[in-house]
Design a protein that fits this description.
This protein starts with a strand and ends with a strand. The protein has one domain. With 323 residues, it is mainly β. It is globular and about 55 Å long. The strands form 3 sheets. Strands 3-4-5-6-9-10-12-13 form an 8-stranded antiparallel barrel. Strands 14-15-16-17-18-19-20-21 form an 8-stranded antiparallel barrel. Helices cover 2% and strands 62% of the residues. Strand 8 and strand 9 form a beta hairpin. The chain contains 1 helix and 21 strands.
């Protein structure tokens, strides 16, 4: 285990320098992506930014979303042209690694669609055409409050989804501005993740990825399959506590695969059992299409209660393949 100058622990076979981009691999589908979610519990506002560099295919995948307190959302997705993997900077989104494993600055400045009902994104063409567009500016600092952890897998392991991967919980501050309105101060928490290697969104059958923060010293990641079985971890300060067994149940909007609430019983490696309950406050259905396959990725801004007393916010992401 390494420790950064600010005392942030780094677990696994990682270095702080892995926060930066890596040498572009030879695979056609080589992807290097960074993702930052952020939630301000004082105003029921949150969202995420993501950029995945696919330089061998000549483009990046760029997504930004901000959910408003009324459940509406400001959203954009783009595939701007890129020719290298030297930085994450395209389509109006810029990611700056200020201090590896400690501090990152994210800025988006560009047009986005204002969705009164984000579920309209089930048909992106109509949603972008039939809703107003306005400028969105996100300017946020992501300061580590928990350890950086993850793994770098074997290049020959055949993994086509997340061969190398890091995650870390952060305190998030800055401003968000929509249209001509004055910037809104933002203060909360979030989770960041970074992956590099071959990536096909169709390479994993399904997952539920549930992330949240309750304070500087308490955050979680729960991972399961579509049957609700899996694991995850909590960060308690700079300590990681593994979730050895998860039983997740989910409520869906009738007739859809749009999740609305969840409940998970979490058994920890130290013998404790914790109960997590979540209610989706804002939801958007997204998709990834490749060679005729259409992967569903449901994103929910979620309010959590842990053990009946800890209140937090985060994102619940449900991925399923068409079959």
């Amino acid at each position: 285990m390494q420790t950064t100058p600010k005392g942030i622990h780094i677990y696994g076979n990682l270095r702080a320098e892995d926060d930066y981009t890596h040498e572009l691999g030879p695979e056609e589908n080589f992807n290097e992506s960074v993702y930052f979610n952020f939630f301000d519990p004082s105003q029921n506002r949150g969202g995420f930014v993501r950029m995945g560099n696919r330089a061998n295919e000549g483009y990046a995948e760029m997504t930004v979303i901000v959910w408003n307190p009324d459940g509406s959302a400001i959203f954009n997705y783009d595939k701007p042209a890129i020719s290298h993997n030297d930085a994450w900077s395209a389509g109006g989104l810029n990611i700056e690694i200020v201090a590896p494993a400690e501090l990152v600055h994210t800025v988006f400045d560009g047009s986005a669609v204002h969705l009164s009902d984000p579920k309209e994104m089930a048909d992106p063409g109509k949603a972008f055409k039939n809703n107003p567009h306005e400028n969105l500016r996100i300017d946020l600092q992501h300061e580590a409050v928990g350890p950086m952890y993850g793994h770098i897998g074997d290049p020959d392991d055949g993994n086509q989804f997340a061969r190398a991967h890091t995650e870390q919980h952060s305190r998030v501050s800055g401003t968000i501005a929509v249209g001509d309105a004055s910037p809104i101060a933002f203060n909360g928490w979030g989770l960041r993740d970074h992956s590099w290697g071959p990536r096909y969104w169709q390479a994993t059958p399904s997952y539920r990825w549930i992330t949240g923060n309750f304070s500087d010293d308490l955050g979680m990641i729960v991972r399961t399959n579509n049957e609700g079985k899996g694991g995850g971890l909590f960060h308690e300060g700079q300590k990681l506590v593994r979730i050895t067994e998860t039983t997740l149940t989910t409520e869906y909007e009738p007739g859809t695969n749009y999740h609305t609430a969840l409940k998970a019983e979490l058994k920890l490696e130290d013998g404790r059992t914790r109960l997590l309950e979540g209610k989706v406050m804002g939801y958007i259905p997204l998709r990834n299409r490749r060679k005729g396959a259409k992967t569903h990725v449901g994103e929910g801004m979620t309010a959590y209660t842990l053990d009946g007393e800890h209140i937090g916010y985060g994102l619940s992401e449900y991925l399923d393949q068409p079959d």
